[in-house]
Design brief:
The chain has about 280 residues and is an alpha+beta fold. About 20% of the residues lie in helices and about 25% in strands. It has one domain (about 5-35, about 70-280): Jelly Rolls. The protein has helices at about 20-35, 90-105, 140-150, 235-240, 265; strands spanning about 5, 45-50, 65, 80-85, 110-115, 115-120, 165-170, 175-180, 190, 200-205, 220-225, 230-235, 240-245, 250-255, 275-280. A hairpin with a 2-residue loop joins strand 5 and strand 6. The radius of gyration is 18 Å and the shape is globular.
Amino acid sequence: MDYKWVLDNVLLMDYIALYREERQKVKSSIQKYDSRHNDISNKALVDKTSRTSNPKDFNDSFSFEFQKVDLESFRVGNISNIYYIPDFLSDIEHDKILEFVDMEGQASETWKKLRLRKLQCWGGRPPNNVNDDFINEPLPLWLQSISEALVACNIFSTALTPNHVLINQYEANGGIFHHTDGPLYYNKVGIISLGSPTIMTFRPRIKTEDIGNIISTDVASVLLLPKSLLVFSDDVYDNYMHGIECSDNPIVTIGQPVECINLKFIENHNLKEGDQVRLLLD
């Protein structure tokens, strides 16, 4: 069973109900191990990293630091279990993560080129055949450090320490089709946004038998600003699709055509409903 958090934004394939039994095993394990979460200190000081040509080289010159978070205080919208934390990263942490992403991407095989975006996948790759097991791989140290920090600051529980990471880099007019992430993963997602703003929208999931007969439309949008963390889980994970629209027009109006549910947290950035924002800068 794999859990995930995502740098930038999400792409995962849907998987059939074969994996739901594994998800149930994970849920039952939470009661056994979640009490360990109380032993985590009030401040997560994670593995220190240096500015180096190799992101796997670590020393004592840099650290990621995250304070404990009361996730409920960042709940947004009327759909259950969507949370938006602005300025989750400091400027230095944001730039350092971008540096690591670029360093990892220097290997020609690291990026997978897709339509209007490219992808790094860490922690193992989903099987091509749904009957095959997921083969886990260790995260790079810098990603493991952030994963542990997300546990230490109350975003994830100890039993559900994130162990799978997707890094999407979008072109200026790029996006990702609306989708659900499927039952291969535990139903909780963390999305750290880097570089430039984008808008993610949510719409009700379409049942398999209704595909082609029913059109689902957006019911909520979230403006994802750099350095922010978006978390969604449970009902919204299982019953709603999320995506980013591809558009030749990089200028959008906040709250149009669908409600922007995290307005109260972006007003500190001098943004309000009706303002225009340039997305996915070149």
